[in-house]
Automatic annotation (TrEMBL):
Pfam families per the UniProt record, alphabetical: Asp_Glu_race
Protein name in UniProt: Aspartate racemase
GO terms assigned for molecular function: amino-acid racemase activity
Alphabetic keyword roster: Isomerase
Cross-referenced SUPFAM superfamilies: Aspartate/glutamate racemase
Family per similarity comment: Belongs to the aspartate/glutamate racemases family.
Keyword Lipid biosynthesis carried by entry: no
Length: 241
């Protein structure tokens, strides 16, 4: 087994949720290997949960704020290295805008990319285009557009009122403790995107979105994908290697 780390603090509930996804995927892999699930069969893992400046504000704002996010994320990687982790995942989608810089700063650590894990999975599902429910920062960074383009999948991002609804659902809804508002905003944004673009597959590409939105909230022809779970699945695979 390989010790692994998770960069959290973006926000704290999302970080804790990611750990749950990781443990679910570990249990699934342990069972698939023919072994019973026991406490002792789970790999060593660490959640480093320190507050990180808002990623979307940094991407849309001043360069010094961008640098503060990079410093905070890099500090968490240093902390995880000190604990013995050599494979790391980030619980925040938008934080992957700093992925390339973090890899250059920490060449001795493997930093997973949520977009790559998602793209690989969607190819296997036969998707050719998907809708992107995410923060404005994730849209601007191209985290998913670039990863999906490499495998020939079109990425249809929320825009205008759709994006405003997603942002409201994240910040005024889930992050503020109002999951019902989050669900209403996410559902409305998805339905508008469905009507505008015709897509039926959607990425819940902010860790807060799956905390409020589920399959029962959307039309039956729509498919919801949780990139956080797909990233956690890859982290579990590495941890149990």
């Amino acid at each position: 087994m390989v010790p692994v780390g998770i960069i959290g603090g973006m926000g704290p509930f999302a970080g804790a949720h990611y750990v749950g996804l990781f443990l679910d995927e570990c249990a699934r892999l342990i069972e698939a290997g023919g072994a019973g699930v026991t406490d002792q069969r789970f790999p060593p893992h660490y959640l480093f949960q320190l507050p990180v400046p808002d990623r979307t504000s940094a991407l849309l704002g001043a360069r010094d704020e961008y640098g503060r996010v990079l410093h905070a994320l890099s500090g968490q990687m240093d902390g995880l290295r000190a604990l013995g982790a050599r494979v790391v995942a980030m619980s925040c989608n938008t934080a992957h805008a700093w992925h390339a810089e973090l890899r250059r700063m920490h060449p001795d650590m493997a930093l997973l990319h949520i977009g790559d894990a998602t793209a690989d999975y969607l190819v296997g599902q036969g998707e050719t285009e998907v809708g992107l429910l995410s923060t404005a920062g994730t849209v601007k960074s191209g985290v998913y557009a670039e990863a999906l383009a490499r495998v020939g999948i079109a990425c249809r991002a929320a825009d205008g009122d759709e994006l405003d609804l997603v942002m409201r659902g994240i910040y005024d809804g889930v992050k503020a403790g109002d999951s019902e508002l989050g669900r209403a905003c996410f559902t409305s944004a998805l339905l508008r995107m469905r009507g505008r673009t015709g897509v039926t597959g959607f990425l819940m590409a902010c860790t807060e979105i799956p905390l409020a939105l589920g399959a029962s909230d959307v039309p039956t022809e729509c498919r919801l994908y949780d990139p956080g779970r797909l990233s956690a699945r890859e982290l579990a695979r590495r941890a149990l290697a």
